[in-house]
Design a protein that fits this description.
Helix content of chain A: 25-40%
Strand order of the largest sheet of chain A: 4-5-6-9-8-7
Mean pLDDT of chain A: 94
Structural class of chain A: alpha+beta
Largest interface: A-B, 49 and 49 residues
Number of helices of chain A: 7
Oligomer: homodimer
Order of helices and strands of chain A: HHHEEEHEHEEHEHEEE
Chain lengths: ~230, ~230
DNA sequence: TAGTGGTCTAGACCACTAA
DNA sequence: TAGTGGTCTAGACCACTAA
């Protein structure tokens, strides 16, 4: 017996062959069918293992072209995007949410662009703070489209965070997500209780449903925040 | 006919039912077998669609417990980790690499910890710069374990970047990856040709093979760098 | 302990694309 | 155009775990 019980075993075996340099970068693997015959399992089991390796960015598969080890592996990592409340509570801290401002306003140029709109649209502009054990954790600057989500005007944002309300009532089918490092401006520094110019991690997220914009939000994490990713 | 040709069609249909709020957050879906019967396809096709939704963090599946819509969707995003040279060339710029320093040195406390070592280990300490069209793009501060990778001493790091050599010659099976925003210190600012205190995005990555440390690297991107992620 | 989802198998047909 | 991988199907058995 070769001890293969599972597609995971097949994947582990192929990974081992890669680590042992039996396959050079850029080189082809045998056909799935041949590997299956060699290991004495079904082709679909090998296929399952190879697809997993392809998802991780380790091999490249092409119909007729076969499977090859990626010459320069550009591996993929997974980010788990948390709900801030659950993230904070998960670390054992008390979560609080504070509404700083709430105002109807047409989208400024930058937000109009982020939401891929041809022109400015009526929005609800919300600024809020998420706190962990009373300390500012995340400053949120959010624009919500009143064309797509007019009901947001009836929500009491002092008790429910806009984020959680949207997540539960407004599913999206398209999302753009980006991170960058920025020096805190006066407004942000004041909100987070830090010095102006302090380096902070900014997250920008915009979401759509059926092509209609839901919200564009820019969050600024308090200094020291680390974003961790998981690599296959 | 219901127009189902593919597991992707099944996934699209289930997604649509979620968007249409036919299933409330936290609520159960019918059993795979029942959905399959309803759609007139095999159970394995529904399984394939549901697994994809589970991978994206949209539904939760449990044996005997069935499939439910996640109450508070913590969705997953994918980061494609590039080779810096390919990233820069992909943007249409000329890539250059400059070795700033190269020195045998025992790992300092911080690196020892990052590499999960019980005590300091002999390392090769390398500082290098990746340039795009002659402009500093990424400053790299790397420690390579000489216990695991003694061959690195024979590599000419002025012509090959340590990153590319390692990627091609030293596969890893474990990787830790994190990002944070930091104010550039004098050394970093000088290397990147920016002002001290400027906010920069720092990436920390450490890799292992069979539990032995390969390398721990801290890269600092030039200001303006955006990290983009893909959401299902 | 009973009822889910997880996986495997063998065979079939198809879509894509290297040659 | 011929040879890969992609997908589907029906049936089987199993692992896990809610009840």
């Amino acid at each position: 017996m070769n001890g293969i019980r599972d597609w995971r075993d097949v994947r582990a075996l192929i990974r081992q062959r890669i680590l042992d340099r039996e396959i050079a970068p850029g080189e082809q693997f045998p056909r799935d069918a041949d590997i299956a015959a060699e290991l004495g399992c079904a082709r679909s089991t090998v296929h399952r293992a190879m697809r997993s390796l392809a998802d991780d960015g380790i091999v490249e598969r092409r119909r007729r072209g076969g499977t090859r080890l990626r010459p320069l592996p550009s591996r993929n990592a997974t980010l788990h995007i948390p709900i801030h409340r659950l993230d904070i509570e998960g670390r054992g801290w008390r979560y609080e949410h504070a509404l700083l401002s709430r105002r109807q306003q047409r989208s400024p140029r930058e937000v109009t662009q982020r939401l891929r709109l041809p022109r400015a649209e009526p929005c609800l502009h919300v600024r809020a703070l998420h706190l962990a054990d009373g300390r500012p954790w995340l400053y949120e600057n959010r624009w919500i489209s009143l064309v797509t989500v007019p009901e947001i005007l009836d929500v009491d944002l002092t008790t429910t965070s806009a984020n959680e309300w949207l997540v539960q009532h407004r599913p999206y089918d398209d999302c753009v997500l980006a991170f960058e490092a920025v020096n805190a401006d006066t407004e942000t520094a004041e909100a987070l209780g830090i010095d102006t110019g302090c380096a902070v991690l900014v997250t920008e997220r915009s979401t759509w449903i059926d092509g209609s914009p839901i919200t564009s939000v820019r969050t600024v994490a308090a200094p020291g925040y680390r974003l961790e990713a998981e690599v296959s």
